[in-house]
């Protein structure tokens, strides 16, 4: 007979994972490529590839080249959870914009710059949106992927449980 068990996280694991998520957000918004790579588990799976070397090229392209966010300002970070084939993973959404409220004469003062999780990017502001789903193991980020579906709170899961 097979018995399914659920492993609960200890308080220390929750605190470590929370601190790791905060550090990931801080380093990504600061565009600190080298320090960001230190947060990832050496045996993790990143963008469905079991090789940490993929991260170096990916984050260099996103954070340091002119095609990425190197010339943009991080205007917001949203948090949520995945609701796709791997539900319940942490989701972090970064919103980078090419926006200057002082020198942009076409700036609309009524434009809402604070976007919610999942809203599309604003073409007028050249907004770049990056969303990542993360899991943790041994005090490091173990998986990183692009979520297909996500929600902003766990109410859906608690009602379905």
Textual characterization of the structure:
This protein is α+β, with helices and mostly antiparallel strands. The chain has one domain: Nuclear Transport Factor 2, Chain: A (Roll). Helix content is 26%, strand content 27%. The chain is built from four helices and six strands, in the order ααβαβββββα. It has a six-stranded mixed β-sheet with strand order 1-5-4-3-2-6, with helices on one face. The protein is globular, with a radius of gyration of 18 Å.
SSE inventory with pairings:
Elements lengths: L10 H19 L3 H5 L2 E7 L6 H12 L8 E10 L7 E8 L30 E10 L2 E6 L4 E2 L3 H6 L1
Parallel strand pairs: 1-5
Antiparallel strand pairs: 2-3, 2-6, 3-4, 4-5
In short:
The protein is built from four helices and six strands, in the order ααβαβββββα.
Provide key terms for this protein:
161 residues; Nuclear Transport Factor 2, Chain: A; 4 helices; globular
User: How many strands appear in the DSSP assignment?
Assistant: 6
Approximate shape:
globular
What's the mean pLDDT score? Answer: 83
Please bin the fraction of helical residues. 25-40%
- Report the CATH architecture: Roll
The rounded Rg comes to 18 Å
**What is the class in the CATH system?**
Alpha Beta
Beta-strand content: 25-35%
Q: Residue ranges: pLDDT <50 for 5 or more in a row?
A: none
> Helix tally?
4
Distance between the termini: 24 Å
